[in-house]
Design goal:
Blueprint: H1 4-10, H2 14-18, H3 22-41, H4 45-51, H5 67-77, E1 84-87, H6 90-95, H7 108-111, E2 121-124, H8 129-146
Parallel strand pairs: 1-2
């Protein structure tokens, strides 16, 4: 998550960081380094920021990146936490213009959850819309049943 203080400290354009432009890639490693420093000092820093002020019966916290994030949510919220992993083949990702960058795409911020987490749900998103819709409907039905 982008922290407003870090954006101001570094003079970054938040909207441009949200897209897949070269602008984001220029600052990506610096953002990762800054995030690591914050996490080392306080592993729950970004998790607390994500839930600050939330008062809904169901939250979707997207883009957790590390085992410590998942552990924080499980420690704080227990069994109500449902983890969802979205996967796509490397071939699909390349069709979507993903290009592997050493030092970035193999960093913990990108693959920290590839091992060590048993996900409650795994959703495959390889471009088959019907399959994706069916998987998401099953997930939604299961979540609704827990309310």
């Amino acid at each position: 998550p982008a922290d407003p203080v870090s954006l101001q400290e570094h003079g970054l354009d938040f909207q441009r960081l949200l897209d897949a432009s070269a602008y984001k890639e220029t600052f990506r490693q610096d953002m990762i380094r800054w995030g690591e420093e914050k996490r080392c000092a306080d592993p729950g820093f970004f998790c607390r920021a994500a839930v600050a002020g939330a008062a809904q019966p169901v939250w979707v916290v997207s883009d957790t990146r590390r085992l410590s994030d998942v552990e924080w949510f499980r420690d704080v919220y227990g069994d109500v936490v449902q983890t969802v992993r979205v996967v796509a083949t490397e071939e699909t990702r390349k069709r979507r213009n993903w290009v592997f960058v050493a030092g970035v795409d193999d960093a913990e911020s990108e693959c920290g959850l590839d091992q060590g987490v048993t996900f409650d749900w795994v959703i495959t998103n390889d471009g088959d819309e019907l399959s994706l819709d069916q998987q998401l409907e099953t997930l939604l039905q299961a979540l609704r049943s827990r309310l």
